[in-house]
Sequence to fold (1017 residues):
Amino acid sequence: MSNSVGFKDRLSERMKGKKTRTFLLTLLVVIVTLLPLGVNNYVEEVMTNTFFYIILALGLNIVIGYAGLVDLGYAAFFAVGAYTTGILMKYGLNFWLTIPIAVIFCVIAGIIIGGPTLRLRSDYLAIVTLGFGEITRITARNLKITGGASGLVGIQRPSIFGHKLYQISDFYYTFFVLVILAIIVSLRIYHSRLGRAWQYIREDEDAAEAMGIDPVKTKLYAYMIGAAFGGVAGAFFAVKMTAISPETFAFTQSAMILLAVILGGMGKIPGAILGAVFLVFFPEIFREIGQMRMLLFGILLVIIMVFRPQGLWPERKN
Amino acid sequence: MSKKFLSMLAVTILSFTVIVTGCGTQGSAPSGTSSNSSDTQSTAGSGDIKIGLPLPMTGSEATYGKDMENAIKMAVDEVNAKGGINGKKLATVTGDDACDPQQATAAANKLVSEGVVAIVGGYCSGAVVPTLTIYNEKNLPFIVEAANSSKITDQNPGNTFQINGTAVHQTQKAVELFKKLGAKNVAIVEQGDAYSSDLAKQTEAAWKAAGNTVVSHDVTTKGEQDFSSLVTSLKSKNADLVFWTAYYADGALLIKQLRQGGYKGSIVVGDGSSDPKLIQMAGAAGEGTYVLSPPVAEFLPSAKQFADAYKAKFNQTPGAYAPLAYDGINLLADAMKRAGSTDGKAVIKALTETKDFPGLAGKVTFAPNKTLQESNFIVLQIKNGQFVLQ
Amino acid sequence: MHAMTVFYIIIQQLVNGLILGSFYSLVALGYSMVYGIIKLLNFAHGDIYMVGAFVGFGALGIFGGALGIGWLGITVALVISMVLVGLLGIVIHRVAYQPLLNKNAPRMSLLITAVGVSFTLFNAVMVMTSGEYKAFTTSLGYDGISVGPVNITYTQIIMVVATAVLMLCLYWFINRTMYGKAMRAIALDQDACRLMGINVTKTISLTFFVGSALAAAAGVMAGVYYGSIQFYMGFIIGLKAFTAAVIGGIGSIPGAMLGGLILGLLETAGTQLPFVGSAWKDVFTFGILILLLVTKPTGILGKSEIERM
Fold:
């Protein structure tokens, strides 16, 4: 596919150098950390939103990219996380305590959804996960405890070490920290035994089974971890927005997160990040053209997939 | 990346930019605005008073957003023609919320960062609620003109004023109407969104509290066209009256299918369906349907001048929320004059103290919870293909 | 108004379910055919249905003056829509899907491309109509036959008959023509077909043509029957038809027909049942779908397969 020699190759060789990479990464972190000092609320809001989607994309990346499972209903985990936090806080529970509870509920949800269905072929799995996504949304809409169609409103803002999180810059840094955590966790898992097990299963499931790996259990772990990511993201989302409603967790949301992962390049951490950035930046940059921007998005999606199905982030040659 | 891919990408983006720029600068779309949802539509000079307008400019509710924006801009032009406020001119900045809570939050932050001093607008309740605290944190007065969920009233952090009738007001009107029509067993149908659900639940509670029966409370899915099973279900429960609390497009379908299925009881629809298109789409089946409506220009004697001016400027009749949208700006201007400044807290105080402000839709005085003291909902009926005031 | 006894309620709901089911069947057929031949869940299929409705609307607008807006006008609009949208299906196949098939791209990429196509169609129509609903006016009325409190209009009867006719045509096409045979063969073993000289790509295009034409027919009929169309209408029906195809056994043509009817009946029952009701009927439907997939994933008429993943 790449057909130019010379400058491009030398550049990519340079980029692969470990020193260069570390330098660029540090530069990026510094820029991101200092950004709020120089920009207005709106830019901070967009960046925070981006961080949020990066976390979700990394979570789904574990499910789709590492374990190779098709999930069209990822928003369900995000919903469980958000609603758990919202409901518990209405009963007066401290925000930070709701996070582990939200994660537990999400993991349970992951087991419920994944348990009976992970044996299925990928296309069927896709439909089932879609169905669960819709079931979660409709349930949230119908039940009184989740606030019905109007959802939960008036969720309190949390405080950390006495400092209340309510300004956009507070959430900017909070989510940024979460992104870093998510990246670290993703990396550790990738290089762990579990991560390798997923790779074997993706290559050849039968051979992996012969080697003693239980495919269903291994895939289930992917699901549970992905669910946990969604749960954490959801919990923080609830307190940032202070109001959550079922519409936020519709299929469109799951599709968006899926898009981010695939567009950037499945299974690659920088890919998921790039995908999330593209996903958030694109509609904002093109806000001016209003209705046309989603149309452009659709067309670009097709073009990118047709010409570069492996995603936007370059393949690592190893 | 391959050359072919890059070139295709470049071509697409370039052509889009060209098309869009071309369309954007070519002049008015039928609704009279030159660019549908541009957030930088403001022609503000540095001394201008900027007002933020959170409205659905894209998506399924875009026609309402555009209609309200038109009326607001007309009011702004009139105020400016009379010299502006305290010597300064008004300017508007529209923020597209696309009737979605997440986009509304982003739009709200964008408006705030553009330095607006007041907020006027709000059509979708679900999109308004999460933004209340964002505006309140900067002490921006928010005049809500169409979104009428009671959640807005409940969650009002102190800066929000609803000049439209709220769900509470509408429920009162509905119950009154049901009694007048002699109904005993009422069936309520909503669409599972914040607005219709709120109205449905409030009406159910109020009707039951008055000692009557609600035989069923159903939820339909937006976009689904087939109501036949619902119709049969309603018939089987012997409802004398069906109350539809969501929007006109699906409402029209429900009305058609109810009549087609032989339903003979009364049909009442809420203000989300009060649109002339309801008549067009329901056709003959719509005859006799009762409609709860915000004060529409057609039936306001004081609004004839407004309606004519709107028609002349935008080439179409003003929509259901145009008079309220227009009133919102004038009320804000009045409050700013009374406060003598554009400082948020001062304007909020002035708004709270509003007494008998003469709007197109009636006199505005706020109750302690910052909603109208008197409801301004009216009851219409479809007769001979037209809305007729009851 | 006659009081409705349980018996009549059941009959009426059965009628409702069958009519709804026929729409689902027509759209489900397209899903099943495409899946059967290239193992792709064509996300854009629901939007094809929507585009079909709009093309029919446009055609009726153009020819309605000359041919009137009664059955003649409608039939002409229907045919025009089927042909044009069928061709659109071919274009989509050639532009968006075939290049990926040629590259043996991962299935996920095909799925995403389908999402992209869906987005494009959905937003293109939204932009062109400014999100407005269009009233699909025809001169059809509500006359029909009544058996006690049960009503069936002539329009409904014609719809069901038309659907049955289309499905019979499809059946004949698949089982009695060379093209149909080629489609079935490719679904079984693509490489063998190539070796035997069958132009696989052309046959796939043909599959898209037929599937899209059927969806377009359903779209026009929906427009005529319900009376209004909007850019959003493809989304829900896509999901439902998807479900129907899976219930009947995805990849199986009689399965799609059966699945559609079953789904229509399930949903209708869900609305009437006291412990489900309209608010939960989709949960009810999805629940049954999931149960079915977990116990018998190949659906009712699908073939049992030993293949995994």
Notes: The first helix of chain C runs from residue 6 to 38. The interface with chain B takes residues 1, 3-4, 9, 12-13, 16-17, 19-20, 23, 126, 130-133, 135, 137, 142, 146, 149, 151, 153, 222, 226-228, 230, 232-233, 235-236, 267-272, 277-279, 282 of chain C (CB under 8 Å). Residues 125 and 144 of chain C are 34 Å apart (CA to CA). The beta strands of chain C are 134-135, 144-147, 150-153, 228-229.
